[in-house]
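Friendly challenge for the regulars: who can give me the structure tokens for this chain first? No prize, just bragging rights.
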Amino acid sequence: LVQTIAAGVDGVIGNPGLPDGVVVARVHDPEQAAIMAGFAAWHVVWHHRRMGQYLEAQRATLWDRQTIKTLRPPSRVTVGLLGYGLMGRAIAATVASMGFPVLAASRTGGDSAEGITRIAGDDAVARVAARSDILINILPLTAATRGILNAALFATMPEGAVLIRLGRGPHLVEDDLLAALDTGRIGGASLDVFQQEPLPCEHPFWTHPAIVVTPHKASVTSPAAVAGDLVRSVRAMQAGQRPDGAVDRTSGY
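First reply, four minutes later:
Bragging rights claimed.
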């Protein structure tokens, strides 16, 4: 058994020293999911309300009530979600409770909660992205999802749409995002994960006016949650059962 200390398992599964037949289990922590959901909701509000412009006005000591004259109500701003596991469900429920219609791309179909529409199938990511004013990525990193946030996907999104990235660094083709921001195809981005971490000081993401950078801290797991999951996984293995948090090493999640 290998028990991770977080939801992501790609680093463990991809480790060449991992023996065949070992069970890999992820942390399943509702509190971690709630923290992630709050982080995502903050960025949705940041971009929807264009809060960066208010901070600029504050720095200029400018009482500016005219720059942002119009605001689309949440009911007219579609939030797309790539990934609908524990974290995705928590984010979807939180954002939907704020009045935003949510589209969730998931591996399989199923019932949808109020305000949330699930879209399944091989083309689910593309279908969700094409309708998303704000797109949140929480996908696991697999061979199929590596580089999935690229110029081709951005070209299908509504002009000026926003990207919020909470999954894994290799999901994004970084030069494609910079080009999409420079043309206005993408109107803004919140980035919490990167190809290289720590993000190099000279990287253009740091100073781009349309990007919010955070240092891979969208969520945290408590030591108590990790310990609890470890104990439950060990007990399941001792009983000849598969732990609840076990992942499919072939699919990567």
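The CA atoms of residues 123 and 136 lie 17 Å apart. The first helix runs from residue 10 to 13. Your move, everyone else.
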